[in-house]
Structures are given as C-alpha cells and as structure tokens.
Amino acid sequence: MNIQIFGTKKCFETKKAQRFFKERGIKFQFIDLTQKSMSKGEFNSIRSAVGGTENLIKTETDEYAQVKYLLPEAQMEKILEMPSLFKTPIVRNGKKATVGNCPKIWKDWIEKGSCQ
After folding, report:
1. Per-residue pLDDT tens digits for 59-82
2. 30 near 107, Cβ under 8 Å?
3. 26 near 52, Cβ under 8 Å?
4. How far apart are CA 24 and CA 43, in angstroms?
5. Angle of helix 103-111 relative to helix 12-23, nearest 10 degrees?
6. Rounded to an integer, what distance in angstroms lies between the CA atom of residue 86 and that of residue 83?
7. How far apart are CA 103 and CA 116, in angstroms?
8. CA R_g for the chain
9. What is the 3-state secondary structure (H, E, C) of the chain?
10. Among residues 14, 46, 28, which one has the least CA distance to residue 110?
11. How many CB atoms lie within 10 A of CB 53?
C-alpha cells in the first residue's frame, strides 16, 4: 500500500508523521492541504476509516460554525474548500486511516507489512 500524509507544511504534527516514515525508509506521498484539497472519494474513504466527519475535522472552530447546519452534500463541499477545518496529519494507508500523531498504529501497519 501507499502511504499518503495529508497536512500542511507548517503543521508540527504533520512533520512528525513525515519524520516517522522517513526514519523507517517508508515512501509516502505528502499532500499539502493548503495547495490541493482531497477529492470527494478520498474524503469519504478517510471519513469512514476514522469513524465519521466529527473525528476528521475541528468542530470547535468558528469556521465549523459556518458549515455545521448545511445539508450533508453541501457540508462536504464546504469542508473540502476549507482545509483549515481538518485535523492533521491525516495518514492514509489504503482503506485504513488515522488522524493525528499515531505512531503505534503506524508501527502496526509496518509490522504487518501493509505499507511497503
């Protein structure tokens, strides 16, 4: 599987995730959310892997207040337009994904050989 790291260049936690995989010689693709948004398919896949939208975005922000009452499809469109709403890093390994710094889970992926 290919590892994808969604985050921003300025995010300290995203840098930790990148360092984790670099130190172990695991290739990954970095997607800077300030430059390129995730696709609807990526969003839906990651959302289901992490247990819902509320686990993927910062719900306590003023920006979220702008989208929380929209219908689901409109809400997704707006979230994809507002990368600052995402908790980072989002690390994707095929159909699996994590939000935040999760080295124990990433080590498990490596030990099971699912991210070579």
Report:
1. 888 888 888 888 888 888 989 999
2. no
3. no
4. 27
5. 20
6. 6
7. 16
8. 14
9. CCEEEEECCCCHHHHHHHHHHHHCCCCEEEEECCCCCCCHHHHHHHHHHHCCHHHCECCCCHHHHCCCCCCHHHHHHHHHHCHHHECCCEEEECCEEEECCCHHHHHHHHHCCCCC
10. 28
11. 20
Q: What is the number of residues in the chain?
A: 116
Sheet containing 96-99, strands listed edge to edge, beginning at the edge strand earlier in sequence = 28-32, 3-7, 90-93, 96-99
Q: What is the pLDDT of residues 18-49, one digit of tens each?
A: 999 999 999 999 999 999 989 999 999 999 99
Q: Which two tokens stand for residue 40?
A: 């609807």
CA-to-CA separations, 81 to 5, 11, 72, 77, in angstroms, rounded = 18, 18, 14, 6
